[in-house]
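User: Structure please.
Assistant: Input sequence and predicted structure:
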Amino acid sequence: MADIDVKICGLTSVEAIEAAADAGAAYAGFVFYDPSPRNIRPREAPGLVKHVPKGMKRVGVFVEPEDSLLERAIAAARLDVVQLHGEERPERLKSIKARLDVDIWKAIPVSAASDLDRARLYRDHADMILFDARTPKASRLPGGMGIAFDWKFLSHFSHKMPWGLSGGLTAENVTEATATTGATMLDVSSGVESEPGVKDPARISAFMEAVKAV
């Protein structure tokens, strides 16, 4: 299998950032969404991102953000990537990409095999698709709840653009997840936490070791 890149998402502390970097994660993820237990505000971002080493890319996660939030967060966190995790339409991605010098990732919620087809709508506007588990309708959170979808949906799925796997990943199941899907990019959040919003350096290390062993 090709090398696997990992994003540790929802980083809120220097300790967690350093653990992710030391373990070899390719991406540091920061959530800019008030309802999330991992939310940070743009004014908090500079003090965190200064600990992200050179070569590790910074990803900002947003849910249907207003332009003002995007612009403030991109500037404050020096973001390389904007990840959109709501109901954003392809036209919204096109608009953002035309104005802001960042890559754009689009999360696609999955609960059935037919959901994968929605990714094709973003083919001309997203730099990467993230297939994530669909969260319960009552939840205000679009992700980060430790829920996985049936990975077999992706076992024979053909997609021409880069894509990654998210949702319910842990050190214990990542071997099965990658073997089933062939994913070469993984996005983990709750699976490396001791409680919602609190990253555990030991779990980050264990997850990365499991990935390296794939």
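The CA atoms of residues 152 and 180 lie 6 Å apart.
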